[in-house]
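#lab-general

N.A. 3:47 PM
ok so I finally got the sequence cleaned up, no stray characters, all 145 residues accounted for. can someone with queue access submit it? mine expired

B.Y. 3:52 PM
send it over

N.A. 3:53 PM
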Amino acid sequence: MSPLRLANLSLLIVFPVAWCAPLMRAGLLPLFGLSEISVLSGITSLWRTDIGLALIVVLFAILAPLAKVLTLEGMLSGRMPARLKPWLFHLGRLAMADVFLIAIYITVAKGIGVGRLEVAWGLYLFTACVLASLALSMASGDKRA
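B.Y. 4:20 PM
back already:
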């Protein structure tokens, strides 16, 4: 198995860790403890209040990155038909959207100044997974992904 395929398949292990890892810690006042927020806890919370938005987050944060890893694996192993190669480019765009949304939410929350928000290690891991997926697709020869 090539190092490129091995690195790509390792994302199938690292992405779920990133989904469970704390992206940020949030609290209303500095005196109280901070609640950790992960991708999965955020989806769970959204599911109770706004199912449509929860489904959008599932699409961007979970399904698009997984589909991109699996599509790239199909391409690298020679099992994917050439006509599906353009999908890798579109999946890459969807997989990056969630990182930008999280960054916007953090910026807005810090700008309001009502509570306290700290970035946690999971955000760095999740961002690294998305960027690694982008780098792997570029290294595989798809210069548009």
